[in-house]
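User: Modeling request: complex.
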Amino acid sequence: MEIGKKIKKLGVAMIALAVFSIASGFADTASGWAPPCPVVTDTSLSRMCTQWAAGLAQPYNTFTEEKFQIILKQKMEAGIVDATRLFSLYGDYVRGGAGMEKDILALGNSKLDWLKRAVGIQDIRAPEKKLAILRMQAAAVIFAGGKRTYELAVENDKLIRKYTPMQFDYASKHQVIKDMVKMAGIQSHAQAQTLWLLSNIRIQEALTE
Amino acid sequence: MLEKLKKLVRTKTGKILIGCVLVLVLYTAAHSTAVTVTNYPYLMQLAQRTITDSIRNKIQEVWQKEVASKLEAGFIRPAGLAMPNATTNMSTWTDTFISDYKGGYFGNNSAWYAQLAKKNTPIAFPTPAEGVGSFQKQVRDVSIAIQGLPSGLDTGNLGTFYKQQFTGRFEATKDQAAAEKYALMQVARHKKVALDKTAAVAASEAGFEGIYMGDAAKKELAKINPGSFDSISSDRAVKDLAKIMHYNAVLQAQMLKVMSAGEVRSAIHSSAGR
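Assistant: Request completed. Predicted assembly structure:
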């Protein structure tokens, strides 16, 4: 009987110990309390590992960022062709052209009466006379436009002779792209001028022959 | 106090309490001095994954910036540089006019010509400055003037014209073969003259299309400062290069049209007198 009581007491004590252990385990986990070193939990291990890994990856990440910034800087680098002078000329040509055309088309007004007198046009109602006036206008437009085109061509020539094809070998690809756009713009402008002049010449031919 | 404790220790309850306290002390001691065995395979796996994630995130970030840079539009915007479309603005009008006036010398539509002749003003040399509508009207006046006065003949009364020519010649010479040859030559001559004039109209109409496009292109291109390309990225500049090359091609196509129309007219004109 005495032994049975002792066993009972021992059993109660073991159950109490088990309950205590489980309860303290739950309390520990729930509180988030990190045990002092050298005890290492999964949570603290992950945290430390993340910091360590970030430090290890940092040099590569810095290199990647710097490389990107260097490429961006290269992309932003200016080209070598400076066509600023031509751009200022384009504006003058457009404005000057409109003024010139207005003057020529004012035939019949006092401004260009000398032209009528010079070619002896008496009666502008006659269709032949109208065609004669048209021919004169075409000639005047071609002369003035041709003069402008020639001036522009001289400026184009001056600009393009400043550079040699070999210079582009010493420029970066990004600079060359920008210079190509500029030169394409100059070429297109020259072509627009050529088209305009050629069209006038063809019209004059159709009016004359 | 001490006596009370001694009494308590002697009791069963006291023994149980002391036992519990001892167990608690032992548990605390064991817990505080325990060393967790580190799981190195897990640690390495975790480290590898973390480093890989960090590097991959950085590469993705830089790549996204790179893609955004490549996707950025060029400097030249459609609103900033609108290349005139001669096909839409001019060619339809030209085609209609040539179609209306088809038959040329043989046509009987002298109303336009008479109307033009009656105007007490010179024909204005067309300029696109006043807008495409006004320009087209001016071009039509020039074309009517070039086409000249219709002869009153058309394909419907070509037979009558032939008979008139034949009869007149036959009455004068009484030579039927010679009169037939003469009448045929007259018909052919009139056809050639009509073709020559129509070719001149077509060439000048193409020329006016060229003027319209060349003038507008000059104005549009003059808005672009070449220096602007220096301050944008090369990714954007490449796109502008393509745009300008497109305009370039449009201008060249129009130039070819003007030149070829002129050459065709020139070839017809050189054979018209033969």
